[in-house]
Amino acid sequence: IGEKLRAQVRFRLENYQTAPRVDAQLSTEQAELEALVGLARSLGADPLPGGRATGRVTATVDLSGPLNDTARPLALRAQAQLSSASVQPAALRAPLTIEQANLELSRERLELTNLRVAVAGGRFQGTLRVESFDAPRVEFSLRGDTLDLEAVQALFAAPASASPPPRRSVLSLSVVHAQQKTDDWFARLSGRGAVE
After folding, report:
1. How many Å is the Cα radius of gyration of the chain?
2. CB 88 within 8 A of CB 53
3. pLDDT, tens digit, 9 for 90 and up, residues 174-185
4. pLDDT tens digit string along 95-137?
5. 103 Cβ contact list (under 8 Å, min separation 6)
6. Which residue in 17, 42, 120, 171 has the fewest CB atoms around it within 10 Å?
7. What's residue 170's pLDDT?
8. What is residue 66's predicted lDDT score, i.e. its pLDDT?
9. What count of other Cβ atoms lies within 10 Å of the Cβ of residue 20?
């Protein structure tokens, strides 16, 4: 697939004349994350609408299901290991630096374990789980050193306007992004968790 993404692809196509069905697997080692996201986008799926991602990924992606006009989207299951990655969903004003993470993904959920991330002036490790991308709900448990609340506010801040809003002394995640109509599942997150 090119210098940025070397992958091994296996697939089986059954009943191609009457009721086509595919079972496919894509495997890659130390590929560029940007190229893998680009491949997903070219296949009609965007795991990071309007966002960017760089870094290294070792992944196995399984797709299966019928291939006709009325078929539901293919079943998806992926496992990956990220390293030295930078991920910036469109809802964030700055990237998240992922030192390492184990990722499991399906059409219904995303789970990160063994997560080590640098964000908002601190370094954290733990887990993060997102259920239902239509109405995303997040649960997380992170343990870290420091958290700069102003950096967190800036991370979720709406784009700068002509007159800046009054400065607040409490932590609040931008409600503007949560209420916008968008394809970016990250911008619609709600949830709970703990930061120690």
Report:
1. 19
2. yes
3. 333 333 445 555
4. 889 999 999 988 788 889 999 998 888 889 999 888 877 777 8
5. 78, 79, 80, 81, 82, 110, 111, 112
6. 17
7. 37
8. 87
9. 14
Q: 């399906």: which residue's tokens? A: 106
Q: State the pLDDT confidence band at 168, using cuts at 50, 70 and 90.
A: very low
Percent of the chain past pLDDT 90, that is, above it, reads: 13
Secondary structure, 3-state, the chain: CCCCCCEEEEEEEECCCCCCEEEEEEEEEEEEHHHHHHHHHHCCCCCCCCCEEEEEEEEEEEEEEECCCCCCCCEEEEEEEEEEEEEECCCCCCCEEEEEEEEEEECCEEEEEEEEEEECCEEEEEEEEEECCCCCEEEEEEEECCCCHHHHHHHHCCCCCCCCCCCCCCCCCCHHHHHCCCCCHHHHCEEEEEEC
Tokens 């089986």, residue?
12
